Amino acid sequence: MHLNTRSGQGTIEYLVILAIIVVLALIVIGLVVSQTDSSSNVSQSSGKLNQLVGTGGISIAEAAADPAGDGLIRVSNNSGENLTLTTITPVDGAGTEATPITYNTSIVSGNSMTFSLSNISNSCSCGASDSIKICFFKLTTLSAAGLERTFTTTVMTQCTQNVTPVNPTIIVSPVSGTVNCWSEVTAPHPICTLSDLNKMREHLDWNYILSNDINAYDTISWEDGAGFLPVGDSSTEYSGMFDGGGHLIKNLFIYRPSTSQVGLFGKTTSDSVITKVGIVDANILGFAEVGGVAGKIDGNITKSFASGYFATSEADSANCVGALNGSSVGNIVDSYSNGTVYSGWGYAGGLSCGNGHIINSYSTANTSKSYVSHNSAGGLISEINTAHVINSFSTGRADSGGLIGRIWSCVGSCITNSYWYDQAGDGATQCYTNGDTNCTKITDANGGIAWFYLETNSPMNTWDFVDTWTVRDNNYPILKWQNQ
Question: Per the domain annotation, does 338 fall within a domain?
Answer without folding.
Answer: yes
